[in-house]
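FAQ
Q: What does a multi-component entry look like?
A: The components come first, one per line:
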Amino acid sequence: MAIRTIHTFPDPVLRQKAKKVTRFDDELKQLAADMGETMYEAPGIGLAANQIGVLLQIVVVDVSMPGDRKKFISLINPVISEGEGSVTDDEGCLSVIDYTSSVKRFKKIKVSAQDLDGKPMEFIAEDRFARVIQHEVDHLHGKLFIDRISALKRSLYKKRLKKMLQAEQE
Ligand SMILES: [Zn+2]
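Then the predicted structure of the entire assembly, as tokens:
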């Protein structure tokens, strides 16, 4: 296993659409294992392949309860087929440094995906789990949570980020 580098905004790879996974081989399992390790190292509770510069539809999501041993699931080619209710809560992203903002998401979603062997699965996710999956599936479409906040908030963040990046270079 290996820890991969997480790409951060405004890296253009985060704006690209990930392609469907068609080969369910050892390489895919290795990639998902690396993503899990990278996510926990960061630390985070979800990671999409775009974030490590791989344009494939793979997300990993932490499913452990607080205090439990860390456990994650890999969702291959995930699709949110239904959504209901809405909840606004704070969100952050390993690719959007030093920023959180409230984002509105479905409270409950229906997800179809495949596992690492290509076996189809379908399940209902709610609350925190539903939020993380919606956030990660957005990544696969080249979308970030800052696209879902007001234009004013977004431009303030971009200005602050620019200053931070300039300060780093000096
Ligand atoms: Zn993210």
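Q: Is there any commentary attached?
A: Sometimes. For this entry: The domain at 12-169 is CATH 3.90.45.10 (Peptide Deformylase).
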